[in-house]
Design a protein that fits this description.
The complex is a heterodimer of chains A (151) and B (153). Chain A has 151 residues and is of the alpha+beta class. Helices cover 40% and strands 27% of the residues of chain A. Classes of the chains: A alpha+beta (151), B alpha+beta (153). At the A-B interface, helix 1, helix 2, strand 5 and strand 6 of A face helix 1 and helix 3 of B.
């Protein structure tokens, strides 16, 4: 093999290795940028849970007065049932445990209900001051929302 | 390109790649830190929203045939009603039993030649969140704040 052929061979080896390394660096950079972008736009679980749980004291168990007017920000104790909760917040039959599930507890009224895929593995909890109608009068109560994020 | 030149070029190239990887690691380390701080900064914002909804519910709590908002407005010139506001608020704080609702601060309109008229319930050391405004019968502003201490994450 003459000198020129050796030169060409080494040049080919050099560029082959270089192309692999450069390609690797580019792919890694794109991957890291994408994961950074995903982490930047990810909604924190506490905010998602807060947004989902708004319905529990706004619309799932509304008190309807004798004139037929609904009071969406008042919880009617007779409506505060697991059937109504699961109708208001349902999860997929098979992968429901992979998303948010809730246990709701009314402290003063001593009532507790939970969604159908809730298995008492709370990730966090939130407290809300709410108004409750017990069939006779309105009173204040505290709704504790236990959040099971994913199992 | 002889053998020595080939090795020189390869070493230069490897140094460049290693240097670039270190710069990337530094940049992404900083970006990752910013990203994690963002989540930590979001949680207090969520707690502020919860604090505001709790404050609005507090103002709707029924008391003495009316609600807390009306009672606070009427209590401006009635010491007896002020006691009722304080008593009911203490009951609610006891029931709530959480840092998210540790007190209430009510600022009545300042009258000429007198000090700020305030009803304060709960710990004095907790900075209140932005509150809501009620309107007094004279059309002046009564500010109501919820006292909410920041949860440690």
């Amino acid at each position: 093999m003459d000198q020129k052929a050796q030169f060409e061979l080494r040049k080919s080896i050099y560029w082959t290795i270089s192309i692999f390394v450069i390609t690797g660096v580019i792919i890694a950079s794109v991957g890291v940028f994408n994961s950074y972008k995903s982490s930047l736009v990810e909604i924190p679980p506490s905010l998602r849970a807060e947004m989902l749980s708004l319905r529990f004291f706004n619309s799932c168990f509304p008190y309807v007065d004798s004139l037929g007017k609904a009071h969406p920000e008042v919880i009617d104790l007779t409506q505060f049932t697991e059937k109504n909760l699961n109708a208001c917040y349902s999860t997929a039959a098979f992968y429901g445990i992979k998303t948010f599930n809730f246990r709701l507890q009314l402290l003063k009224s001593a009532r507790e209900i939970s969604t159908d895929k809730y298995y008492r593995t709370d990730q966090f909890q939130d407290k809300h001051l709410v108004l409750v109608y017990d069939g006779q009068s309105l009173q204040e109560d505290v709704l504790v929302v236990f959040v099971q994020e994913s199992i | 390109m002889n053998k020595k030149g080939f090795l020189d070029d390869m070493m230069d190239f490897l140094f460049l790649v290693v240097g670039a990887l270190l710069v990337f690691a530094l940049v992404f380390g900083v970006l990752g830190e910013i990203s994690s701080n963002r989540v930590e900064e979001t949680n207090p914002q969520v707690e502020r929203i919860t604090g505001k909804t709790n404050l609005l519910a507090y103002l709707r709590v029924p008391v003495e045939g009316t609600n807390m908002a009306d009672l606070i407005v009427l209590a401006e010139k009635n010491p007896e009603l002020r006691e009722k506001v304080v008593k009911k608020t203490e009951e609610i704080i006891f029931l709530f039993n959480d840092q998210a609702f540790s007190g209430i601060l009510i600022y009545y309109p300042i009258k000429e030649g007198s000090a700020q008229d305030v009803i304060s319930v709960g710990s004095e050391f907790i900075i209140p969140d932005p509150g809501v405004s009620l309107v007094s019968p004279e059309g002046k502003e009564i500010k109501v704040y919820v006292r909410r201490s920041v949860k440690k994450s």
